[in-house]
Amino acid sequence: MRKSLGTALIVAAVVVAAHAQTAGDSNRIDRPFRSGGVIHLNLSAGAYRIVGDEAERIVVGWHTRRPEDMRRVRSNVETRGKEAFVRIDGPSNGFEVDIRLPARSDLDLDLSAGDLRIREVVGSKTVDVWAGEITIDVGDSSAYRNVEARVRFGELDARPFNVTKGGIFRSFKWEGRGGYDLRARLFAGEIRLLR
After folding, report:
1. How many CA atoms does the CB half-sphere of 193 hold within 13 Å?
2. pTM for the full model?
3. By C-alpha distance, which of 187, 51, 192 is closest to 113?
């Protein structure tokens, strides 16, 4: 009994190790996802570039400064009807991620820390970052219904909405006649909303 249990544990450990090795060697996930849905992104510290694309797919690719850090990356893209869930966890230094997704998507994003760039994504956006730099290309300001941005310590540059502020507890609210909402919240760093 003990011998068979020990053998089973060894076999299980080998299978898990082989799976982890395979996952560590791959640096790309590609999943179909229709335009017009909501994409929830839960991201660990790193530099993220999110770009809207005509293809109806979510494609995630990443790079690490050191090759051995690739094995520390854990990523998953799950789709359920009109919702997608993207979870990425990686090393704290030198971790860069590119995410391509349908251009017409609503985003709900939570990033612990780092640099975030969003461009060519048309839809509502809720972005929460603890520390770092947020840059969002908003396009035409008339596309928005409600815009709210705030930074506890740092700078807020939202020229499409005629706002530039720096210091402590900087925020603004804006209302328009468009169909999308934009909320960006940052504890420390800089928020830039660009045309």
Report:
1. 29
2. 0.85
3. 187
